[in-house]
Amino acid sequence: MKAKKIPLRKCVVTNEMRPKNELIRIVRNKEGELFVDPTGKQNGRGAYLILDESIINQARQTEVLNKQLQTKVPDEIFDELLTLSKEK
Fold first, then answer.
1. Is the domain defined by 8-87 classed in CATH 3.30.1230.10?
2. Tens of pLDDT along 30-83?
3. Number of other residues whose CB lies within 10 A of the CB of residue 78
4. 3-state DSSP call for residue 68?
5. Alpha-carbon span 41 to 6, nearest angstrom
6. What's the rounded Cα separation, in Å, for the pair 45 and 68?
7. How far apart are the C-alpha atoms of 55 and 28, rounded to whole Å?
8. At 71, is the secondary structure helix, strand, or coil?
9. SS3 content of the chain, % helix, strand, coil (to 5)
10. Is the separation of the CB atoms in 58 and 81 below 8 Å?
11. SS3 call for 30
12. What DSSP designation does 15 have?
């Protein structure tokens, strides 16, 4: 029997390829709304981050999400990501 292929995605901070289920997706939809997508299936432009506190803080400092999503990412998104990283 053939092994199931695991989808890989790249973290925008570390440029490291990881299985999709190890990353968290941040989405900007057509209406310009930004939100965290834990399912990874919402419509819109997405950027993936490793769910780790140091990487989330690095993303906030370097503003890499602003460049990837082509908009200003509010602090509430980063706060939500930090909360999710502590729950994991």
1. yes
2. 999 999 998 889 999 999 999 999 999 999 999 999 999 999 999 999 999 999
3. 18
4. helix
5. 16
6. 9
7. 20
8. coil
9. 35, 25, 40
10. no
11. coil
12. -
| Residue 31: C-alpha distances to residues 1, 14, 35, 63 (Å) | 44, 28, 12, 21
Residue type, 69: L
Of 53 and 88, the one with more pLDDT: 53
Amino acid letter, residue 57: N
Report pTM.
Answer: 0.89
Report CA torsion sign: 75, 79, 84, 86.
Answer: positive
- The pair of structure tokens assigned to 30 is 């057509």
Structure tokens at 40: 């990874």
Helix (H) or strand (E) holding 75: helix 75-87
Inter-helix orientation angle 53-62/75-87, to 10°: 170
CA angle 29, 41, 33 (to 5 degrees): 20
